[in-house]
Amino acid sequence: MPTITAGDKVLVSGANGYIAMWAVRLFLERGYLVRGTVRSEDKAVFMKEYFNSLGFGDKFETFIVEDIVKEGAFDEAVKGVDAIAHMASPFHSNVKDPEEFYRPAIQGTVGILKSAVKNGEKVKRVVITSSCAAVMSPPEKPTKFSELDWNTLSPKQVEENGANTPPMTIYRASKTLAEKGAWEYHEKHKGDVQWDLSVINPPFPPIHDVKSVITLNTSLQIWYNHVVAGLINTKEALSDSNSWVDVRDTALAHVLALEKAEAGGERIITTGGGYIWQEWLNVANSITPSPIPSHKLPVGYPDILDGETVVKITYDKSKEERILGIKFHTKLETTKDTLEDFARRGW
């Protein structure tokens, strides 16, 4: 399949989001034109000002899509673009009704593909932001997952428990069903279109419009609570483990997935590696001078790392290394840059 090149126009849905803002910036820096969808003109203001300040004012445009669930929501937005990065989907921890995640995640994802079938005459490829939440079911013992794995447990749990399901389980289920819906829709219509599909599955410092700590996206809010605020400070909690990725690397993965022919038809996990929460505290306290001198950073329990430690959830990175070849940021780089950004914002 043909890939995009500098000068082509990319549609980025949910362009004011956490990962999407970085992706928009990378697309612009690499010579692409970008059309970003947002829900309202108010949400477009920061983006226009920010990218204009970087000299991209004539390369970036916004397009209002008030409700991504609405039938034909992206019909006009996809016209004239060469590629699509669908990055609009909810992730917050205060959900009550599964439909709050399901409708925008599933209908929004399939909806933009429908629009690409209908009006995307120039589209060469669509990349979708999924998640490792669609890959793994929380394991009881240390497990390495790959792109061959699917989270079949979370959708069943939501089906059984409905509104009583924990929010993170609902989120995992929504990402699983949305990604499956995308692959199924493309398989059904691939004979009718000239574009192919690629999916990025990332695991769990913002440049999007964040006015205070409480408006941080969920994943960064959790990191802030552990590493800066010290609100998560039990030995058990700081011994917990998972996998991580720098937002800049996730954004780059979306760009490369549109550029590289080999990414077509592929599901690609992008991860910087595993972690134990105490590691982040140790890294933050090792940086001198402190990037955020207004805070006395929590020390936690350094002895957690004295013995043998095991990361419970890890991922096979071989496909990403073969197709995308990203040099991921280290924990030190990510920690330093994030803390410096918090300090700049007065947090």
From TrEMBL:
Annotated Gene3D superfamilies: NAD(P)-binding Rossmann-like Domain
Keywords for this protein: Oxidoreductase
InterPro entries referenced in this protein's UniProt entry, alphabetically: Epimerase_deHydtase (IPR001509), NAD(P)-bd_dom_sf (IPR036291), NAD(P)_dehydrat-like (IPR050425)
GO molecular function (one): oxidoreductase activity, acting on the CH-OH group of donors, NAD or NADP as acceptor
Domain NAD-dependent epimerase/dehydratase: 10-266
A matching Pfam family: Epimerase
Family to which this protein belongs: Belongs to the NAD(P)-dependent epimerase/dehydratase family. Dihydroflavonol-4-reductase subfamily.
PANTHER family in the cross-refs: NAD DEPENDENT EPIMERASE/DEHYDRATASE, STEROL-4-ALPHA-CARBOXYLATE 3-DEHYDROGENASE, DECARBOXYLATING
Protein name as catalogued: NAD-dependent epimerase/dehydratase domain-containing protein
Species whose genome carries this gene: Psilocybe cubensis
